[in-house]
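In this section we walk through a basic example: taking a raw amino acid sequence and producing a predicted 3D structure, encoded as discrete structure tokens. The instruction is simple. Fold the sequence below.
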Amino acid sequence: MKKIFLIFVIVVLSSLVLEFFLRLAGYKPWTTFQKEQQSLYAHNSLLGWKHKKGEYLKPSSENIDKANIFTYETKGNRSTGPKIKKYTKKIILIGGSFTQGEGVTDNKTYAYKIQEHYPDTKIYNFGQGGYGGIQSLLLLKEEVKEINQPNIIIYAFIEHHLQRNVARSEWLEVLLKGSKKNSKFKLSLPYGTIDKSNNLKIVPSISYLTLPLREFSSLITLLEKVYMKQITRHRKKEESLVFKKIISEMDKVAKKNKSKFFFVNLSLNNRNSDEVFKKISENTNIPYLDCRVPNFNEYKLSNDWHPNVLGHEYYKNCIVNFIEKKFKKNITN
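The resulting token sequence is shown next.
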């Protein structure tokens, strides 16, 4: 009994000493980015989360005296303006927060601007904050069932989607830090991997490890990080192939619904090579559009990494010009 007690004391003291030196080295216990606040999202067992219907006000990152309006329709798609008549055409937009329009009010998103350019066409903006390609693919499969034969389907991505698609540990950590602190749902999301037959396999759910006392101990937070790094370390090498498979699956959905499909790069950083996306386009014969902005600082929000109003105008012009060249008959006839 004394021996067990001695071992216990040694473990506790060792942990306390290690905790002290970890904090001295700059390691901190777990903290979230957000506290309890109005949420635009609802838990979704298939997708992890999805926008919920309603009108919300979010503080502007560029003007503390203003708030951006976020309006979501029944399907969880962001509003692209009031319905004024029966639409003759339909376009589905899928993607992450750049498509959603994080940081700008409803009528400044590129989706809203495309709607204004094509008033007879219903633009379904299914951009969801934090989504990558896997969630976008699953959402598309669900929503296209009710949106009968959309004329065009567009997947808009940024390079970070490659990391999101395979649920790298860094991304899982960011998502958990940005989620509501006391939510009754533990944040989880589906991710993609490649099976033994070289096909895309979608794993239904993964979440970041959460151990007791994580908000009080740097040691526990570090153990979580090391564990998550270890179990996801092999995923980086699959990123490009998983992305290619996602694009191919989206194209299959489009063909099944007699729709045209293309994927568009909205990354703010145009210094990185997009050769991997060009090759995917060449190998699959699926159109790829490079809409990366020409100047990073000019086209992003001043206190954020998302595109500003100028960025959304650039995206709108880029996409509309491409549609006019490649798919005009699908949207104007």
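Looking at the output, two observations stand out. Residues 2-24 form the longest helix (23 residues). The chain has a mean pLDDT of 89. In the next section we compare this with other chains.
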